[in-house]
Amino acid sequence: SSGINAEYGACFQETKLSRCQVDSSLGKMDSRFSFFNFSHSKPGNAGVATYVTKSACPYSTQTCPDTLDIAGEGRCLVAYFRMTDGRTVAVFNLYVPCGYQEEDGGKFINKLNFLEKLEECVSEEAEKGNHVIVMGDLNVKSSILDSAEAYQLKHKPSVVAEWTSSPDRTLFAALLAQTGLIDAFRHLHPKKEHSYTCWNTGLNARVNNYGTRIDYILLSSSLAGYLRSCDHLTGVTGSDHCPVICELEGIEVAGCENPPSECSVHYPELRGKQSSLLAHLKKRPSDEKEGRTGTQKRPKLQPKQTTLIGLKRTLKSSIPATKLKTPSNETVATTKPQRNPTQGVVSVKSLLTGLPKAPLCKGHKRPCVLKTVTKQGENEGRRFYGCALPIGLSGDPKARCGHFEWFK
Fold first, then answer.
1. pLDDT surpasses 60 at 404
2. Which residues of 180-198 are buried (b: 16+ CB within 10 A; e: fewer)?
3. What pLDDT shows up at residue 301?
4. Is the separation of the CB atoms in 135 and 92 below 8 Å?
5. Whether pTM exceeds 0.85
6. In the predicted model, is pLDDT for residue 189 greater than 70?
7. Is 177 exposed, middle or buried, given 0-12, 13-18 or 19+ CB atoms closer than 10 A?
8. Distance between CA atoms of 371 and 369, rounded to whole angstroms?
């Protein structure tokens, strides 16, 4: 995700918005035009949004190339800007599917397909002579420098080689090599350590900076000469991600007088042409003729009907939120056999006497916290004790130890 106060624009991922939730505060700003791509197959899932200053409006946008339309989940939006020298810059705002090779077979395949098709799309733009900028949550840790967990393995070459050769990292490396894109952050900071953009909030990982770098801004090599800075705004909180901001100096965008038809200012509901809810609630002449009054009892809603309550929401955070993988010691099971119905059931005795005193963790001799296995499998719902400190690098006294014992 790019900087919130960027001069030209900002991109957001995993907005989880539906069109009915885009009101004037989100879709009709005084100083910016906004463009959205919504998840149609899974409302409230994924979604991306691009905001641009009105003086640098794109001349065309594309909600999602067919090759990148993963099940209609609204994971891509492309905006085309015309530079003053006549060339075009194609800006891809992406939310790549999240999937892990060892866990999510279907999701991981979607992720690989997306990265493979992305290379084709970027290559097509380059063949047209266009500059390309790819930004967003790409859900790939490209090297051990981009993962606190992997960084601890740097002294084990064979393990690092196996980690680096995973299919998603291989495809990401091919994307850069085949299209000529450069990683803006690594271009300026090739060896910078412990610089991350995402942390597992469930494990309080941000406290010890035990994170990953999965948010990128990639540029055509032809734009490398304009690159001045690329930084992570780690001080911006409120999400498991932090913004990434990039400065290109010397690029002038021509802009256009009228925004493309996909711009949210063209939504009828934001232009005031859609009838208001009040009009639907007022008594109509036909109601009086048929003897209907405002005091008539309303039929009860069926359980599956949707009420108006809850349809209107605002985007509380300008930074996307992402559900992260939970370490293996907290998600013990990897299969989905029949669950034991007695697991996770609180006994009458514990309700009357309270929970037993928590044991002390082996590493810090501090009281443990009680946790619950949430991953599907034979141990789902079982509770266990673990260290109360945040996750962190091995050997860090401020990080949690590996204490684990089942609750009895």
1. yes
2. ebbbbbbeeeeeeeebbbb
3. 45
4. yes
5. no
6. yes
7. exposed
8. 6
